[in-house]
Protein: Cytochrome
Organism: Forsythia ovata
Amino acid sequence: MFSRAIGFAPSGDYWLLAHEPWRQLECAEMVNAIATEQALQGFVLLRKHLQAASLNNIMDIVFGKRYDLTEYDNEAKELHEIVREGFELLGAFNWSDHLPWLKYFFDPFRIQERCAVLVPRVKKLIKQIIMENQNNNSFKVKRSLNEDDMVAVLWEMIFRGTDTTALLIEWVMAELVLNPQVQTKIKTELDTLIGNKGVTDADIPKLPYLNAVVKETLRLHPPGPLLSWARLSTADVHLSNGMLIPANTTAMPERFLPSAGGVNVDVRGNDLRLAPFGAGIRVCPGKNLGLATVSLWVAKLVHHFEWVQNRAQPVDLSEVLKLSSEMKKPSLCCGHSKG
Ligand code: HEM
């Protein structure tokens, strides 16, 4: 079983190839659902499509299980809800993390109560899926972890891997809507290098501008902003424009500048100038999956549609900090099919 879980599978070509078909399939279904919604109502609420496809992608990889995105059954609904609740709870401010004795009488966000409700829901659903798989004989369970440990590890893969990916793509698409010249440049790169065939993982390294856009989005809207220590200047820094960033200042970027450099930075924890997946022994184990999914799906979304603002509700880049930094108002865009 663990050879199938992302965090335990070695990175590299095997890993990418083994999982590409799922990501292609999820993305194709997402593109169809987006086209249908656009045709029906003239705009698209991107986040829900990205979250649904991302959840299916992770469930495929972890359990070999997928859900029909058009007819969410009860299990899919339950899974979707508990993933969201887990993500919210992990990102919520918990007073008793700092003052443990407070938990008995001050818990304004009802963290204890919500955790107590969530844990049995997670255990029930994940155990049920593990049982189904055992009955199907489709995967062998290693007994070195007990059942509760397995539930915890598999659950973490699911809820950590779903929204980080979906929310990052939402940020990329919001920046592309606000910066049409950047979107055009990606489109030109795709038309020149890919033409009319479908984009695959193998094409992604040949698309430097697309990669630069993803990295720039990770710089400007890192899903893990709690790693903001990485933005702390350790000494006075004199910029070429004469400005001084004094030591011990947390410097957050403001402008989206995909061409400004960073293209050659390895964002997977090997270069601390930009480490949106963390670094070292606790680096994100899903970093390759996350990057591969985001790059492939953004390429496909731009290849299939031209993205513009929905005039009734322009894109708003305000952030809200949960486990991940997400857009306060989910972005409503219009994805006009390129036919
Ligand atoms: C674009 C997508 C993603 C981003 C930006 C991201 C970012 C991060 C960050 C910043 C951390 C904390 C690292 C640290 O503490 O130094 C982390 C940890 C983690 N991530 Fe991701 N992640 C992404 C996708 C995924 C995916 C797809 C999975 C699983 C399939 C995943 C699973 C995990 C797990 C299990 C941890 C905890 C690692 C540990 O504490 O040992 N992540 N991620």
Q: What stands out?
A: Residues 124 and 151 are 9 Å apart (CA to CA).
